[in-house]
Write a structure and sequence with these properties.
Chain A: This is Signal recognition particle receptor subunit beta, a GTPase. Chain A: InterPro entries: Gliding_Motility_GTPase (IPR052705), Gpn (IPR004130), P-loop_NTPase (IPR027417). Chain A: One of its GO terms (molecular function) is GTP binding. The complex is a heterodimer of chains A (215) and B (120). Helices cover 23% and strands 28% of the residues of chain A. Chain A has 215 residues and is an alpha/beta fold. Chain A has a single domain, classed as Rossmann fold (3-Layer(aba) Sandwich), CATH 3.40.50.300. In chain A, strand 3 and strand 4 form a beta hairpin. Chain B has a single domain, classed as Winged helix-like DNA-binding domain superfamily/Winged helix DNA-binding domain (Arc Repressor Mutant, subunit A). Chain B is elongated. Chain B starts with 12 loop residues before the first strand and ends with a helix. The N terminus of chain B is likely disordered. At the A-B interface, strand 1, strand 2, strand 3, strand 4 and helix 4 of A face strand 1, helix 1, strand 3, helix 2 and helix 3 of B. Strand 2 of chain A pairs antiparallel with strand 1 of chain B. Bound molecules: guanosine-5'-diphosphate (GDP) and magnesium ion. The site of guanosine-5'-diphosphate has 16 residues of chain A, from helix 1.
Chain lengths: 215, 120
């Protein structure tokens, strides 16, 4: 029962209300399975907006710190130069039922860091790729990386006031998407529209699951 | 160093995560962003402030991602905190390991998520 002056926990008093950092965002005690979806796309395409539209909590930010070490010609001597980069993703949450919680992660801007943060796409059910028809070319890298990683995805065209209206077929051609990948139009600011894009992804995943069970 | 993390040998650049001076030492494959954490004990004297905060945050289940957001700490740092808490039995990690990349998501999971989205 010696009390250390430097005791970092203080009196161990837990009951105070200031001591309830989660408050009404608390999950039920029965929650036991977290699943995730990814909202991917170029900068400014509406990822954060979509996460916010469907999330039951105010979107939060999770960060990872990466140290990039450039390797000399002879690396056995170890690290030579280092730069530190913080990769941030915002995310939201939807309670599926008393056991399952769905998390939605918006990908960070610097796409070259995505796959260095182990766990971003790992274990994701799938991804919605938001595209802006005014700058489709900014989505090429993202689509390529999703295909490389084997993450199932759909494409959602976010329409902005000055967007030229293209048909989904034109977008499919411009993005060189295989016929099996669904393309939908959406307004990420709207909850129902964002939800429908997510549902399109889920139905696509069901189709893929069906196909993978065929002999 | 022999304890460097797993990177691609052929990559011109190497990347690793900072973990409070313990980069690469910890096996944290079992802890993903959406693993749910639940406290099994109250904060005790001698714990770090951060460990005590995790125990307070996780009095109801909370994802690793949410813990990082509330503590404003990078994922890899939180992972180390959690590994220590797990090894002492102070928290429980509730989610199974992440779904392997090649495997299709469980049909039951898809059906339940669709149901929840439809009632949004
Ligand atoms: N017209 C229109 N504007 C949108 C839509 N989605 C997002 N925006 C706007 O585009 C801007 C960038 O969106 P944001 O979600 O921050 O993009 P992020 O960088 O992908 O996260 C914001 O001002 C949004 O209000 C949409 O579907 N339609
Ligand atoms: Mg954003």
């Amino acid at each position: 029962m010696h009390s250390k002056v430097s005791d970092p926990v203080g009196g161990g008093q837990l009951a105070g209300t200031a001591d309830d950092p989660i408050g009404e965002d608390a999950l039920p005690d029965t929650a036991r399975l977290g699943v995730k979806l990814v909202v991917a796309g170029a900068f400014g395409v509406g990822k954060t907006t979509m996460v916010r539209s469907v999330s039951e909590i105010r979107p939060l930010v999770t960060e990872e710190t990466m140290t990039q070490a450039s390797l000399g010609v002879d690396s056995t001597a170890g690290v030579e130069t280092k730069t530190t980069t913080t990769v941030a993703m915002d995310f939201g949450r939807i309670t599926v039922d008393e056991e399952m919680i769905l998390y939605l992660f918006g990908t960070p801007g610097q796409e070259r860091f995505w796959f260095l943060w182990n766990g971003l796409f790992e274990g994701a059910l799938g991804a919605v790729v938001l595209v802006d028809t005014r700058r489709l070319e900014e989505s090429f890298g993202i689509l390529e990386k999703l295909e490389e990683s084997g993450t199932p995805f759909i494409v959602a065209i976010n329409t902005f006031p000055d967007s030229v209206s293209y048909s989904t077929d034109e977008v499919r051609q411009a993005l060189d998407l295989p016929p099996g990948v669904p393309i939908v139009e959406c307004d990420a600011r709207r909850r129902d529209s964002s939800r429908d894009a997510l549902l399109t992804l889920m139905h696509h995943l069901q189709k893929l699951a069906d196909a993978s069970e065929l002999p | 160093m022999s304890d460097a993390p797993d990177w691609h040998e052929d990559s011109p650049e190497r990347f690793f995560m900072i973990t409070g001076g313990r980069a690469g030492h910890v096996e944290h494959a079992a802890l993903g962003l959406v693993t749910l954490i639940l406290s099994k004990a109250a904060p005790k004297p001698g714990m770090s402030l951060e460990q005590a905060s995790v125990l307070r945050l996780c009095r109801s289940p909370l994802s690793v991602a949410e813990i990082t957001a509330h503590l404003k700490l990078p994922f890899s740092v939180v992972t180390v905190l959690l590994m220590d808490l797990l090894s002492e039995g102070n928290v429980e990690a509730r989610s199974p390991a992440p779904i392997p990349k090649s495997a299709m998501p469980d049909r039951d999971i898809l059906r339940r998520v669709i149901g929840a989205l439809q009632s949004l």
